[in-house]
């Protein structure tokens, strides 16, 4: 890829790496045999909890503005606010109606102002642009900006320098900044690595735009991967993706949740968007040496726990109630479940909170996520549910209901209903 192919010269990624070096972590490339020889780029360990800090740092440092506006699903806003606080920059983050409340709270806790707008990501980005123009603040988009793309590319630079023999890299795709950045990094290093973008099934704007030969806007999505709900391909990004990406694949919510569970078991507390690349790698199961970018770890639970740490209370605020997942009796497989002992299940769930944690009021989601690979009891619950239900629903249930009492209630009610009607 040459500079003539795209607006951004591949060398901009190296310049970004030098500019942001003192603000970012060089994150490890972990070996986790979720697939033979698979490597995991651990960006959940990045400052601010996601790779978004890289592009945000490159833009903030290069622009030198004293006020910025950023449209974000959350992680970009958290990154900009984290940096803004240190650099003395006033930060306003524009978030779409359905964006995570815990991410909004994190931006506010870092001193950022948050404006919520109705609609999806496209409406959000239009509003952010208008607001920046109206107030004279610098616009720092979450992906479609030369400096942001170059900053995100430092993820690829580190990966390809740490493992030059990689055959394939799987990258989650939201706005596409990370994907385009990894492409530029590969071009800069002259690497022929296969680059595969992973989009949520409901938001395949890059795949559709490439096949249509023009930018296609898709409707707002409610993918469980809240960072991957982009609607339009970026103007800066699309030519890079067209030129260099080898393949774009789609993954559904169940596959993302399954990948997230596997990562958690392996001690990597990814958020859903951060697990999408693994879902893609599991789907293709390529021969050779692959790496996935675990792009973030800002789950509701992780943010809530960080919030509690900030306040010094040691207690976690309850995670906001997430949209209901499919109930067991809505599933064909759920109907064909084994006979169950509801008392045993209720005992397992409530006993876990009382006996293992010494508290029956803690937030179920927080505990599950925060425990990472260590909490055998949490996984026992999932396993027991998986014997009764189909796997995705079991996992979704544990992630959805914010208290053990609610979780037990819904499982018992729904299983009883399903057994009675079977
Ligand atoms: C954790 C996480 N992964 C991936 C993405 C997608 O990144 P991009 O917008 O650069 O495609 C996001 C976007 O918010 C994210 O928060």
From TrEMBL:
The keyword Phosphoprotein applies. Pfam families: PALP, PP-binding. Residues 340-415 form the Carrier domain. Its cofactor is pyridoxal 5'-phosphate. It comes from the Bacteria. Residues 309-336 are annotated as: Disordered. Keywords: Lyase, Phosphopantetheine, Phosphoprotein, Pyridoxal phosphate. The keyword Lyase applies. This is Carrier domain-containing protein.
């Amino acid at each position: 890829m040459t500079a003539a192919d795209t607006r951004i010269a591949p060398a901009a990624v190296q310049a970004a790496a030098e500019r942001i070096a003192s603000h970012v972590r060089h994150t490890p490339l972990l070996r986790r045999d979720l697939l033979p020889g698979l490597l995991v780029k651990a960006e959940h360990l990045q400052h601010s909890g996601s790779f978004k800090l890289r592009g945000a740092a490159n833009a903030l440092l290069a622009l030198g503005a004293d006020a910025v506006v950023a449209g974000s699903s959350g992680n970009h806003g958290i990154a900009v606010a984290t940096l803004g606080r240190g650099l003395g920059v006033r930060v306003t983050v524009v978030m779409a109606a359905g964006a995570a409340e815990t991410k909004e709270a994190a931006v506010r806790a870092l001193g950022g102002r948050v404006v919520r707008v109705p609609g999806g990501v496209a409406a959000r980005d239009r509003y952010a642009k208008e607001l920046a123009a109206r107030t004279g603040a610098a616009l720092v988009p979450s992906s479609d900006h030369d400096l942001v793309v170059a900053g995100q590319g430092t993820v690829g630079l580190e990966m390809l320098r740490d493992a030059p023999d990689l055959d394939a890299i799987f990258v989650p795709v939201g706005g596409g900044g990370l994907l385009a950045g990894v492409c530029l990094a590969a071009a800069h290093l002259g690497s022929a690595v296969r680059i595969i973008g992973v989009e949520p099934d409901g938001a395949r704007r890059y795949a559709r735009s490439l096949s249509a030969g023009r930018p296609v806007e898709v409707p707002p999505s409610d993918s469980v991967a809240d960072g991957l709900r982009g609607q339009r391909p970026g103007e800066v990004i699309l030519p890079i993706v067209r030129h260099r990406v080898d393949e774009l694949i789609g993954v559904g919510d169940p596959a993302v949740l399954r990948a997230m569970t596997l990562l958690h078991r392996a001690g990597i507390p990814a958020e859903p968007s951060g697990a999408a690349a693994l879902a893609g790698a599991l789907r293709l199961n390529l021969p050779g040496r692959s790496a996935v970018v675990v792009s973030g770890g800002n789950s509701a639970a992780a943010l809530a726990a960080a919030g509690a740490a900030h306040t010094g209370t040691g207690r976690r605020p309850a995670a906001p109630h997430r949209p209901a997942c499919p109930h067991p009796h809505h599933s064909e497989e759920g109907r064909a479940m084994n006979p169950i002992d509801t008392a045993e299940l209720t005992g397992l769930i409530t006993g876990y909170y009382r006996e293992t944690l010494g508290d029956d009021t803690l937030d179920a989601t927080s505990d599950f996520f925060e425990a990472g690979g260590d909490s055998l009891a949490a996984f026992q619950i999932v396993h027991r549910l998986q014997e009764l239900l189909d796997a995705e629903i079991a996992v979704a249930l544990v992630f959805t209901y914010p208290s053990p009492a609610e979780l037990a209630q819904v499982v018992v009610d729904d299983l009883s209903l399903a057994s009675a009607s079977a």
